[in-house]
Design brief:
7-stranded antiparallel beta sheet; GPI/OXD; Thermophilic glucose-6-phosphate isomerase; metal ion binding; binds 2-acetamido-2-deoxy-beta-D-glucopyranose; Jelly Rolls; 26 strands; 11 helices
Length: 431
C-alpha cells in the first residue's frame, strides 16, 4: 500500500477504504516534482503523517482520478472532492486565497488584492493584504469609498486629518483596527522589521469603479506655477518629487510628532480602535471568544464593521444568518469548514485555511466548524453595515411555541424544550 505523507489538514479528510489503498505513483511523482523550497514547512510537517491520496470516491459514488489531480489543492478542499451528501443544487464559488492574487511588489513591501473579478460573489467588498518593511511608507492618499484596516503583524504608524483640521497619529499594532471614511486622507508607515495589515473596501469592483488619490500623482499633474501659487513656495520646490513614488516606498521611521491647533480625532471621533487591548467576549456556548467592533463602540465605522472570532478545537460557530446583509470572511489561522445554505435546496460546503477569504451571500444560513483537534481557528467576520447582527437558529427554535416547532420538525416537545434560549454564538466540542 503506497501512502502519501500529508499535512495535518488532511486528518479532516474522510476517505474510503478503496481510496486508502490506491496506487497512484504518477500523482505522487508529479506532486513531488512540483515541491519547491516554498513548500518546505508544509513538507516537514507532512513527514509525520501517513494519510492516503484523496480520491472522489465517497459513499460508493465517483471514481478514481486519472488526470489533472493536484494533490495539495485536493487536500485543502476535502469537501469539494467529496461533498457531504447534504450538499445540493448550484452554489457558485464563495472562496479565494490571497496566494492566488496578483502580487504587486514594490521596494519596501507588497500589496495583493481580492476583487470581484477574483471572487465574483464579492460584490460588496474588495480586500487587500499589505506588507511593509521597517520605515516603508504606503504613500499619502485617499479613496472614494470607505477603508477598514486590521493589523495582522507588527506595528504601523497611521496618520490622518479631517476636513476640520483635526488630526490623529496612532501606532496600530497586531489586532488593532482603523476606519478611514470616504474622502479622508491618510498615510501608513511600517515601524517594526515586518508589518502586515488587511484592508477592506466597501465595493468589490474597487479597481474598475473606484480609485486611490495619491498625493504625488496630483502634484505631478499640476502646473508648477500653480503649485507655487497654491503653497506660496518657489516654483521649483517639487522638482525632485519622485515620479512616480509608487504605492509603497522605502523610508525612515517617523516619531509621529505633529500638532494641530484644531484638535485631535479622539474619543468618539477617533478613526483608530485599539482592538488588541479590548477584552474578548466569552461565547455563552463555551466554544471560544469574539470581539465585536461596530458603530456602538467605534462610532466612525458606519459602513464596515467586524467581529474577530476565535474558535476552540472542534468547536462550532453555531448555525445562524445575518439579517442585515452579506458577510465577508478572512481566515487568519486554522482549518475550518462551512456549509453555506442559500434556501431552495441549494447548499455547498467549503474548507478554509490560512489566507482564505470568503463571501456568504445576504441572509444565507451557515455554520463554521473548527476542524482541528489541537489548534484554535482565528478568523474575521465583516459586514456592510453599521452593526454586527446575527440570528441564531437554536434561539429562534427555542423561543417559538414548542408544540409548533415539534410538529414542524416531527420531534417531541421535550427536544424543543431542551434547546438553549440564550444565543450560544460558539458551541464547545462535546467532551
Ligand atoms: C510577524 O513577522 C515576523 C517576521 O517576519 C514573523 O517571524 C512572525 O511569525 C510574524 N507573526 C505573525 C503573527 O504572523
Ligand atoms: C520628531 O522628529 C522631528 C523631525 O525629525 C524632530 O524635529 C522633532 O524634534 C522630533 N520630535 C520628538 C518629540 O522627538
Ligand atoms: C460615544 O458614542 C457612544 C455610542 O454612540 C455614546 O453612547 C456615548 O455617549 C458617546 N460618548 C461621548 C462622550 O459622546
Ligand atoms: C414523524 O416520525 C414518525 C416516526 O418516525 C413517522 O412515523 C411519521 O411518519 C413522521 N411524520 C411525518 C409527517 O413525516
Ligand atoms: C482533525 C479533525 O477533523 N478533527 C475533528 C474536527 O471536528 C469534527 C466534528 O466535530 C470531528 O469529526 C473531527 O474528528
Amino acid at each position: 500500500m503506497k501512502l502519501l505523507s500529508l499535512v495535518g489538514v488532511l486528518a479532516a479528510t474522510t476517505i474510503t477504504a478503496q481510496a486508502a489503498t490506491a496506487e497512484k505513483p504518477q500523482a505522487v511523482a508529479s506532486w513531488q516534482k512540483r515541491q519547491s523550497k516554498h513548500l518546505r514547512p508544509v513538507l516537514e510537517v507532512s513527514k509525520r503523517s501517513t494519510a492516503p491520496i484523496p480520491e472522489p470516491t465517497e459513499n460508493g459514488l465517483g471514481g478514481m482520478e486519472d488526470e489533472g489531480q493536484n494533490v495539495p489543492i485536493e487536500l485543502q478542499n476535502p469537501d469539494a472532492l467529496n461533498p457531504p451528501p447534504t450538499d445540493a443544487g448550484n452554489v457558485v464559488n464563495l472562496k479565494w486565497n490571497f496566494g492566488l492574487s496578483n502580487q504587486l511588489l514594490s521596494k519596501g513591501g507588497y500589496i495583493r488584492e481580492q476583487l470581484v473579478t477574483d471572487l465574483p460573489a464579492s460584490t460588496d467588498f474588495a480586500a487587500a493584504q499589505n506588507h511593509l518593511g521597517k520605515g516603508s511608507i504606503r504613500q499619502m492618499h485617499w479613496h472614494d469609498i470607505d477603508e477598514w484596516g486590521y493589523v495582522t503583524n507588527g506595528t504601523v504608524l497611521i496618520a490622518m486629518v479631517d476636513e476640520n483640521g483635526r488630526n490623529q497619529v496612532a501606532r496600530a499594532t497586531a489586532g488593532d483596527i482603523w476606519y478611514f471614511p470616504k474622502g479622508e486622507p491618510h498615510v501608513i508607515q511600517g515601524l517594526e522589521d515586518q508589518n502586515e495589515y488587511l484592508l477592506i473596501f466597501d465595493n468589490g469592483n474597487f479597481n474598475a469603479e473606484d480609485t486611490t488619490f495619491n498625493v504625488d500623482d496630483w502634484l505631478l499633474h499640476t502646473p508648477p506655477e500653480v503649485l507655487a501659487k497654491n503653497f506660496g513656495l518657489p516654483s521649483n520646490t517639487f522638482k525632485n518629487t519622485p515620479n512616480p513614488f509608487g504605492s509603497i516606498n522605502v523610508g525612515v521611521s517617523s516619531n509621529g510628532s505633529v500638532s494641530s491647533p484644531f484638535g485631535q480625532l479622539t474619543g468618539n471621533a477617533s478613526w483608530y480602535f485599539s482592538a488588541s487591548k479590548m477584552e474578548a467576549t466569552q461565547a455563552p456556548g463555551g466554544g471560544g471568544t469574539f470581539k465585536r467592533v461596530d458603530s456602538r463602540n467605534f462610532p466612525i465605522s458606519q459602513n464596515i464593521v467586524a467581529q474577530i472570532v476565535e474558535i476552540k478545537p472542534r468547536a462550532l460557530r453555531e448555525m445562524h444568518w445575518h439579517p442585515n446583509g452579506v458577510e465577508w470572511l478572512y481566515f487568519q489561522h486554522g482549518n475550518a469548514r462551512a456549509t453555506v445554505w442559500l434556501g431552495a435546496a441549494n447548499a455547498r460546503t467549503f474548507d478554509f485555511t490560512d489566507g482564505d477569504t470568503a463571501v456568504f451571500p445576504d441572509n444565507s444560513g451557515h455554520y463554521i466548524e473548527n476542524l482541528s483537534d489541537t489548534e484554535t481557528l482565528t478568523y474575521l467576520e465583516v459586514f456592510h453595515s453599521n452593526v454586527v447582527e446575527d440570528v441564531s437558529l437554536t434561539q429562534w427554535l427555542a423561543l417559538t411555541p414548542p408544540d409548533i416547532v415539534a410538529q414542524v420538525l416531527n420531534v417531541s416537545t421535550s427536544v424543543v424544550n431542551a434547546l438553549k434560549k440564550e444565543k450560544q454564538v460558539i458551541v464547545a466540542a462535546a467532551q
